Amino acid sequence: xxxxxxxxxxxxxxxxxxxxxxxxxxxxxxxxxxxxxxxxxxxxxxxxxxxxxxxxxxxxxxxxxxxxxxxxxxxxxxxxxxxxxxxxxxxxxxxxxxxxxxxxxxxxxxxxxxxxxxxxxxxxxxxxxxxxxxxxxxxxxxxxxxxxxxxxxxxxxxxxxxxxxxxxxxxxxxxxxxxxxxxxxxxxxxxxxxxxxxxxxxxxxxxxxxxxxxxxxxxxxxxxxxxxxxxxxxxxxxxxxxxxxxxxxxxxxxxxxxxxxxxxxxxxxxxxxxxxxxxxxxxxxxxxxxxxxxxxxxxxxxxxxxxxxxxxxxxxxxxxxxxxxxxxxxxxxxxxxxx
Amino acid sequence: xxxxxxxxxxxxxxxxxxxxxxxxxxxxxxxxxxxxxxxxxxxxxxxxxxxxxxxxxxxxxxxxxxxxxxxxxxxxxxxxxxxxxxxxxxxxxxxxxxxxxxxxxxxxxxxxxxxxxxxxxxxxxxxxxxxxxxxxxxxxxxxxxxxxxxxxxxxxxxxxxxxxxxxxxxxxxxxxxxxxxxxxxxxxxxxxxxxxxxxxxxxxxxxxxxxxxxxxxxxxxxxxxxxxxxxxxxxxxxxxxxxxxxxxxxxxxxxxxxxxxxxxxxxxxxxxxxxxxxxxxxxxxxxxxxxxxxxxxxxxxxxxxxxxxxxxxxxxxxxxxxxxxxxxxxxxxxxxxxx
Lengths: 339, 339
Hints:
Two copies of one chain form a homodimer.
Chain A: H1 3-15, H2 25-37, E1 47-55, H3 71-81, H4 85-93, E2 96-103, E3 115-116, H5 134-151, E4 157-164, H6 168-180, H7 184-187, H8 196-213, H9 220-227, H10 230-245, E5 249-250, H11 254-266, E6 274-275, H12 283-292, H13 308-326, H14 330-333
Parallel strand pairs in A: 1-2, 1-4, 2-3, 4-5, 5-6
Helix pairs in contact in A: 1-2, 2-13, 4-13, 5-9, 5-10, 6-8, 6-9, 6-11, 9-11, 10-11, 11-12
């Protein structure tokens, strides 16, 4: 980001008719977008896109989810027909939804609206060995970068990321455990809604995966390949692509933040282009946001994924842009400043 | 509210293609709006209005604010010219801003866009006696009810409330102290940005006001008249009017929630029409939201007032309405349900 533009944006924010800093995170967003767009007055996005990646997880064989794996392709078709929550929220926010199969298990999904970029038909069960090879992880990352470049052409742009994949809170928990060193028991949540007995089983599965694979926390690619997922890799690639293209990327919940941890591990400066949208119900999500140094805007006890939290944050980000552009200064409005 | 419609809305929400409850507060909003509108499928508002009331506070003579009292009428003119934060956020949300002088000190403000309904030219300094008479408090409440009825004609409607008044975090702190019994020191914050020394002085002023006036926590009108404010009374009236008209009313920050406590004290059922927007930086605000039993959507460290948090929540409330109307059910989408 252009820190000179951030500085100029901050000066303007401090002269607008409000006590300095009183718009909180709205001011942070306006300042950071100035830096990302490289202009003291950030402009409204010309293009808003929700990129939704679908991938399956071999670890579902361990019984970690309340939903069967067949739901992944079923929901992909629901996205393509416009009936899912992400479709409704993106439409409302004026954003386009792009759905990509980067790693769904089972037969190829036939639908003209789908981006078919499947790297592998679901990951392998990581309690027995790595989820994927290092080469597959690299390919999935590159797939995400390519997807971003192909789908987002206009500037300024605003990108939200989301996912679908039965079992992916288990993989994300393993990624967080690997990077943070925290015990699985402490950071394992209820995902789509499992009971306490199953949650404890899920935590034990994550612990086993870490023992078997021994991912190296200093090597993001190692963590990704051993205990990650294909949609997590793809989202990490999108984040890297956004940083390269200087596009703000809005994170969603727990799984997208696992991707953000991978992206930051591979390219620390990519964090400068991340915006947090919401804090989800998943207990590890707050820890991830803390690790990433990001402040979420929304706290609505959501736990759906798909990019729903990110899409819900689009209007707030646009409001922040309008604030810095449209508010009057103290001098313009003839209002006395404070002490 | 119509609890039968709430029940029908909940049944539909549970059949939409997502794990039950996974959209969190978004689902709560959709269900509650169904009850308020009296239909299982709530409709988007035909009219959105931000009602902003301005009033002054005699207690500023004690040096409790970082800004001089002249800022109240200056900001009223800024609202009327469209240069304040509430103008920007309401415009972005497609809402109309209505500005009313219910109790500004000094000469009458001449502007054709202003609703002049001044009850009194600022409250009296409540460290020496009541802020206003019981009759003045009733008149200010009635003024709020009338304002709501005159300004909001279409249905369904969505109303946000906001305020401007130098010194009004001091009055709101006194209102919270009176209703909660909590010590002023614990619930007094920095308002528009005073330092720690001044914050302690402000807490002492609130304690003194309570000792001098002895407001009766069981009598909302007594609390309002003795340690409230004219804009607080007007907002409480708007809330009562919204409940009578079955219109959802979106609360803003600390001062609007002081008004909500007064409204609930006078008419407990009015709480059923309140929606919380954000949790502000002011430490007492979280306590008020807890007392009101409301869950805020946004946590953005805002502390501006004017109705800015409420306006920022309008698109989220509309998104909740779209969710229940537009998402596919499991049966429609051919998606397998969980266990």
